[in-house]
Amino acid sequence: MAEDAWNSRDPERVALAYTPDSVWRNRAEFVKGREEIAAFLRRKWARELEYRLIKEVWAHQGNRIAVRFAYEWRDDSGQWFRSYGNENWEFDEAGLMRRRIASINDLPIAESERKYHWPLGRRPDDHPSLSDLGL
After folding, report:
1. Do the Cβ atoms of 24 and 100 come closer than 8 Å?
2. Phi, psi (deg, nearest 5) at residue 85
3. Cα separation of 132 and 51, whole Å?
4. Strand order in 64-74's β-sheet?
5. Is 48 helix (H, G, I), strand (E, B) or coil?
6. How far is the C-alpha of 63 from the C-alpha of 28, rounded, in Å?
């Protein structure tokens, strides 16, 4: 569900999965609360064009989950990137995420190296996972 929400590129929809006082570290940026989360995501998706994401659960215990992900996007000059990362999530009793810690690295790629070719939006059910793609 998290992957589907992020692939919608709808900041308000994504922000609803987080507690009103959720705390994020995304790379070197610190964000707190749904309003800041939505603003952060608006800036992100204005810069990261044609964004497509795949997530995989790495480990979980209790109210914490570790996720690995990779997403592809291009900038306004046409340069493509694959961004690789790991996230640590912590949930409250209602199932909303209260903490998100993300570490992400960007790799410039040629357009011919892209692996995510589905139409913008939700990843099709038959599209390979990160593991299937060797990522």
Report:
1. yes
2. -165, 175
3. 20
4. 29-32, 18-26, 97-109, 80-91, 64-74, 49-61
5. coil
6. 24
Measured CA to CA, the distance from residue 120 to residue 122 in angstroms comes to 7
Q: Are strands 18-26 and 97-109 parallel, antiparallel or unpaired?
A: parallel
Element (H, E) at 36: helix 33-47
Domains plus CATH for the chain?
Answer: 1-133 (3.10.450.50)
Tokens of 64: 């914490």
Q: What is the pLDDT along the chain (135 residues), one digit of tens a residue?
A: 999 999 999 999 999 999 999 999 999 999 999 999 999 999 999 999 999 999 999 999 999 999 999 999 999 999 999 999 999 999 999 999 999 999 999 999 999 999 999 999 999 999 999 999 999
What is the number of helices (H) and of strands (E) in the chain? 3, 6
Q: pLDDT at position 31, please?
A: 96
With a CB cutoff of 8 Å and minimum separation 6, the contacts of 35 are 15
The one-character DSSP state at 135 is: -
Task: Report pTM.
Answer: 0.93
Which element (helix H / strand E) includes 126? none
